[in-house]
Design goal:
This protein has 233 residues and is α/β, with parallel strands linked by helices. It has seven helices and ten strands. The chain has helices spanning 40-47, 73-77, 95-104, 110-123, 139-151, 169-183, 196-201, and strands at 2-11, 14-24, 29-33, 55-60, 63-64, 80-83, 157-161, 188-193, 205-210, 213-217. The strands form two sheets. The chain has a six-stranded mixed beta sheet with strand order 6-7-8-3-9-10, with helices on both faces. A four-stranded antiparallel beta sheet has the order 2-1-4-5, with helices on one face. This is Cell division ATP-binding protein FtsE. Residues 2-233 form the ABC transporter domain. InterPro entries: AAA+_ATPase, ABC_transporter-like_ATP-bd, ABC_transporter-like_CS, ABC_transpr_LolD-like, P-loop_NTPase.
Length: 233
Amino acid sequence: MISFINVDLELNKKPVFTNLNLTVQHGELLYIVGRSGSGKSTLLKSMYMDIRPKKGEIHIAGYNSRTIKNREIPLLRRKLGIVFQDFRLLEDRSVYDNLAFVLKVTGTKEKLIKNSVMQALESVGLQDAAREMPFRLSGGEQQRVAIARALVREPLVILADEPTGNLDPDTSLEILEYLKKINQKGIIVVVGTHDYELVRHSPSRTLLIEGLNIHETSIEPSLTGFRPTGKTA
């Protein structure tokens, strides 16, 4: 479970959210929507403690933002899988080695790595691409590798920050389907996106960022085709 209790968040000393209260239950698929620059990325960063609350506290994966020590943050992040818009793959390593690296740095035994990597790649349909280099893959395939990398440590939560921002509409829907399959395993999946059509395709609980606040919403027909561009929050 994830919970925000009376949280104020700032970015570069500028308020982004005030008195935010939010709960995400085990097994939920949650969309966070809003225009580019509205605070979606800031909210996700606070979940993996890249940004700490100015006030209040965040509870996630058994950790509390008010009491967590800096040396414990890597331990928290081992329980989370994070997917970015720009993939962030190691271009000089194969698909297999991109995933294996995540396990090696956390001390996973060598004999367990191969099975974990291949299972994660199979979950996104890329088991046959294990020895390919990332630059030889399409954008959609690279994002699927990034999802597999997020999944390889069997996280409690997947945080996806504009995971389809660099992809065409058909590929975006494909990526969403893989995230939904992960969610069906009982893993919390939180997707930050400005693509309202993506949310309309597969409705789930949706939060809309407006100003310094966030509230439950449904995507109405009037929002169809609203696809802002530019940097995320």
